[in-house]
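Page 42, continued from yesterday. The earlier attempt failed because a stray header line got pasted into the input along with the sequence. Redoing it now with the clean sequence only.
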Amino acid sequence: MTSTAQASQSGAGAAQPDHLGHVIFITAAAAMGGFLFGYDSAVINGAVEAIRDRYDIGSAALAQVIAIALIGCAVGAATAGRIADRIGRIRCMQISAALFTVSAIGSALPFTLWDLAFWRVVGGFAIGMASVIGPAYIAEVAPPAYRGRLGSFQQAAIVIGIAVSQLVNWGLLNAADGDQRGKILGLEAWQVMLGVMVVPAVLYGLLSFAIPESPRFLISVGKHARARRILEEVEGKGVDLDARVIEIETAMHSEEKSRFKDLLGGSFFFKPIVWIGIGLSVFQQFVGINVAFYYSSTLWQSVGVDPTDSFLYSFTTSIINIVGTVIAIIFVDRVGRKPLALIGSVGMVIGLALEAWAFSFDLVDGKLPQTQGWVALIAAHVFVLFFALSWGVVVWVFLGEMFPSRFRAAALGVAAAAQWIANWAITASFPSLAEWNLAGTYVIYTLFAALSIPFVLKYVKETKGKALEEMG
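This time it went through. Structure tokens are written below.
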């Protein structure tokens, strides 16, 4: 470790409580993008069957409307890093908030199926931007000693957004007498579900005006005095500001030249570290986690659960998601990123395998046999718990930390784009796969969870406690 890195580490570790409180506020405000990310991703769960009924479409077309937002996510994620390097992290957040707001209004008031799809793409672009800017910004303002826990705020906000969306959906469904197409405020219930996102979107935009720009961005554009003030705010008065500025300036000098071509190299197009980031992103999605949030109501109804109860189970799953995320936040800096990922993989294999077993039984009077029904319900919660306490958090932390400074922004954009493409593949394929063989679909997810174990053991290196400038 260089002397400046040591100064950084010691200064960060010595951050006073008042400075840490300020950093927590900044982090929480930035993580509002994660809340919107989670809310917008999961709110569609309450509208799936209503959209199918209103527009009279089959499973394949329905899947495309649900999944098309993820194409916008991939584009937003791929371009956000470059945009942020040009105009700053805060301006990116404000653009994302504006797009979230417009998307919520458009999705709530669609004229046709196709303009609903268009507004979902717009919202997806905003999600993609938030998925990159949130962890990158938090990693850049957080002292190294607290970076893992503060980086976890992004995932915590995502799971809270998911839970709130399911609670709002459940409340609106009950207000509409259990009918997704029932009238509320002159609109169908599902339209109100999609429109409610205007509230947190506006709040995100307002909060973005209350937090400082990233010191790394400010140094990259020559605003050293302002960067020093912010570094003192977030790292405490004990830090050697001159040493920190020199350290960051050296790293940012390489980042200024970061281009997509900097990611190229090795035997397979990208550098190995970029492929590892892509691998983490793909495994995170190929275990089928978003099926639990995009389609859970439809899934439970397909095995005989009452519609209102299916929304309640979606909400309880979201609560388990929050519990798991809190566990991860507590242990990510104590146990480390890699051990948590391995623990989570083992737990996911068990949960998914039990779901596959339960779904392999024939329905009796339109329902799973009682034993299998309970096993499926408990296993689904086990799966979500182990995902949340591991891969849900550590992948975002890894992606914010693992890449060298000289191409971090570009590599994070590629890895996040890969995550959204993988998410799209799972989301778009699930309705058709479920019609083919629901148990077989969960066997596929189980296999990917199992394969993630040797992948982590062989290729993923621990980043716990290292300064960003040490990643090389």
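Notes: The longest helix spans residues 408-459.
Reminder to self: strip header lines before submitting.
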